[in-house]
Amino acid sequence: MNFQDSRGLHMLPQAPEEASYYTYGTPSAGLGQYAHPNMLSFLFNLEFKWGRHDDRKLGFGNISLADSTYFEGHKSHRDGLDIDIRPVRKDGKHMPVEYQQAAYDRAATRRLVELIWQCGHVDYVYFNDLTIPRVVRKPFHDKPSARSCPRIRTMRYQMAIVLVATLLGVAAVSAAASAWEYEFRPAKVEYVVYGGYLGDTIPPSKGDSKISFLISGSAAREMFNALGPDRPDACGADASTRVREKREISCLRYSAKEYVCYVGFDLKTGKSIGGVIC
Predict the structure, then answer these.
(1) What pLDDT shows up at residue 157?
(2) Which three-class secondary structure state does DSSP give residue 84?
(3) pLDDT band, residue 176 (cuts 50/70/90)
């Protein structure tokens, strides 16, 4: 296993015995936790300050894959400056929790967010419990997540973005309106069935089963063109990536003119929940 990638980013140490954090994420074993030096400094500072006042360990999740590889399910997490951090549980178990659940410790999570800002160099904290100061609501961010660049965007809980679309294909729109016909055409679609939450997934179960679709090729291109205009302030947008979003629909166009769009559904309720997080 390589603990340093071609960019010089190092894998986050996988929960040393005396550390005040544990690791989780997909892929496991640290393969999704290559961190910028600024991020590592931030995390070591955060876990040290946390451990002085609380015996429960913080859950550090996805950061980035080696060599800036595209992180499936994320629009960002490419430069080692983003991280997902689990909210604090009352029981201290190394498991996910949503802020609406009884196991969620709001007071401790508030202290965690305060420490994140105290550590400095934080761009933003995405989290949907708006009773906690200095967090920004984002779809599907029911756990904190953050960004750490030379400044650190630290806890950013990401949530999935949804498109209400036909599962087996997307109705194609012809350039010539007079030649348009309503018909289903083949589409390039990949999917994953999971439980838990995007960015903090677990195996699906009878009571918790969701599906995320990644649409690419011509179908994604038509969706992207129809969504417009670009959202330069959206997560994932940069000099080489254009992002278009409308409510729960999210599509990206990369510099190589590659298009991807995301769709997701809760298979227990039938509700559209989105297919990608920041």
Answers:
(1) 31
(2) strand
(3) very low
Query: For residue 247, what is the DSSP state?
Result: T
Q: What is the C-alpha separation between 66 and 196, in angstroms, rounded? A: 25
Whether this prediction's pTM lies above 0.70 is answered by: no
Q: Which of 83-87, 130-134, 143-147 has the lowest mean pLDDT?
A: 143-147
Q: Which CATH number fits domain 10-155: 3.30.1380.10, 3.40.50.360, 3.40.980.10, 3.90.1300.10?
A: 3.30.1380.10
pLDDT averaged over every residue in the chain:
81
Token digits of residue 61: 């999740």
Beta strands in 76-223 (DSSP E): 82-84, 125-126, 145-147, 153-155, 188-197, 200-202, 210-216
Q: Are 222 and 135 in contact (CB under 8 A)?
A: no
